[in-house]
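Ticket #4471: complex job returned nothing on first submit. Input attached below:
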Amino acid sequence: MEKILVLTHADESGSALTKASLETVTAGLELAARLSAPLTIGIVAADSATAATSLPSTGARLLTVSGEAFAQARYGSDAAAAEALCRAAEATIVLAPGTSRFTRIAAGVAHRLGGFVDTHITALSGAETVEASRWFYRQRIEAVISRTTRPWFLLLDAGTHAAFADAAGTAQVESVAVELPAQRTTVSGFRAPAQDAQTIRPDAKMLFVAGAGWTKKQPDGQTHAAEAGELILGFLHATGASLGSSKSLVDQGGEGNSVLPFLTHLNQIGQTGSTPRHAKGLSTCCHGEEPHVVGWRFIGSRRAISLDPNCGWTRGKADVVYVADAFQVMAKVNALLAAAKG
Amino acid sequence: MANVLHIVVCAGIVPDPLQTLEPVTGPAGPGLKNEMVLPAVLDPWAASALYEAAALAAKNPGSKLWLVSLGPKAKLQQVMMTVAQKVAFELVPVDGPIGGFPDAHATAAVLAETIAAIPGLDRAKLLLFGGWESATRGAGVTLQLVGERLGIGDQFQGVDQITLSDDGSFEVLERVEGGKHQVSVCAGTPAVLGWATGNLAEPRNNPQVGMANMRTIMPALAKAKAAKLEANGLSYVSVALPKQQRETRVVKDLSPDQIAAELVEWIGAE
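Support reply: We reran it on our side without changes. The output follows.
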């Protein structure tokens, strides 16, 4: 019989589980019910006992690792913590959220336990066995995989399950001791753009994708990068949308051209960028495969504004394509949004 | 004072991103149709790692740079004709299968064994570089497994910047959720760094660097050991192209005002 462990970790508060962790709890509950397998949830946090108060109604065995050393996301301490939890749970299947914190350590921990790992899992299926769906070649080919070897670590992509939510209660937790190796790495904090300049918003309902057309010469023979920047930022400010970009547009900024100064490689979606999950996506001035095929794989409702009525990449990928000048349309959109806000 | 570094970059070769990919299943499992004739390039994020490594080695005289790559010899040779013109390195090739479907653990075992056997490599000075994910399997686990096999306890993924201090310690910026970087300071080598995009543009082709590299690359390819990758219990239930095809409505005859009104209504709808 399989024994399932869900690994979770706290957010920056140190005492509440991340949304991605709670999504993995849901996946663990579903899998345990389907396989009639016992479920254990492991928590890594500075204050795991408080973090566990959101989980008593799961009915799962709760194992915790606590302490200041686990307030920081760091390979040495996190891998030791996850290894200790896995050994205590004696799990055959380990589910974990595909967060930066656990993505950094999952393979190393699997190796220490003689196990195997697969990441970016988007669905779990199978009647009596465990089968996992994931994408290959940057979201171009979808496969369903299985493994006979155990323990099997599966890192779930964010947004693939609903986050577990129930009333907080008193949790019966078992504390697991961790033998920490000497730490040579210190996490000193985070570096981020100022709050009003942050354009990457994973929880936003909408993704706005800017393509290289924004910085190309316009009908008057001139480029209008400053105006493009104002229109894009105005839209982001009005809607709270997240900003994605094609590689070509980001690269222009990196080459020292004065294009859209708020864009960095972190905004990039597609082959060498991210594949974010949002309910809606609006693509503007994109004319390549990257944003429409790879970067948009997990976008629900998709619309595009393009001057090219024959753009082959939008056909079959976007729900609606407006053949129009994005400068003109977005100026009108921003005006309407501003008027609606009064 | 400069630090002497021994930098090993793990980089695979991948189909050119502009190619159309079609999966096929053969006796050895899934693969790509016409895989051996598809134009190939160095894996993009691993290429970032290579360029960052070369810049770091150049700033620290006495440092060495190796490029370890697993793939079919003929394809490696083809890709190296271009890559060799970018930066100076010593190629350590392994003749093995191409593509995203072989098991990452098997790949990591071969790479770790290869790196451990590099003559003159001082593992106390080792910075193990690579892409944080490949453009084939995209799992982001191979480099981590190699590091674990080599006993390296400090690992960083999604790296965009490394800054070395005179005392050998270094600051690393790693991508985390929400468009932020986590800032860490590591006491020194050895360490594993899985690179994201970094900050460097692709170097221009330099024929002189290319000629110097090719003098060692061709003999290395000729001597490349063959590797067989174990399946490790991994099996594929199905491998397919996504079927979802949307019915695209192409709107050509609306004014900007009308389009804007339609978009605002769509944005506001649940």
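Chain A touches chain B through 94 residues (CB under 8 Å). Closing as resolved unless it happens again.
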